[in-house]
Amino acid sequence: MTTAPWGTTRMGPYPESSPFPALTPVIDPETQVAVFVDEHGHTVEMGAHGTSTSGLTPTTTSPGDGAGPGGATDADSTESYDQDQSSG
């Protein structure tokens, strides 16, 4: 007898949802920024979206003064993340 996988025992039907109206992206001729319009041609506010940057900075260490061979080296990296606008 085969036992059902654990994840399938937790599955259930998706909750009921309502249809989402279709939106069309267009370029605003004044600002040259993409905006979304509904089926009636009205601009739809999509909320605030910030931008962010992230970077991976590698670091490496070497033993001694470099005059002789051998020794262990170590490599690591540090990730930075900056966000200029919070969404919500």
TrEMBL record:
InterPro entries reported in the protein's UniProt record: Actino_peptide (IPR025843), GRASP_targ (IPR026496)
Pfam families reported in the protein's UniProt record: Actino_peptide (PF14408)
Recorded superkingdom: Bacteria
Region (Disordered) residue spans: 1-26, 45-88
Compositional bias (Low complexity): 50-64
Protein name: ATP-grasp-modified RiPP
Organism: Kitasatospora cathayae
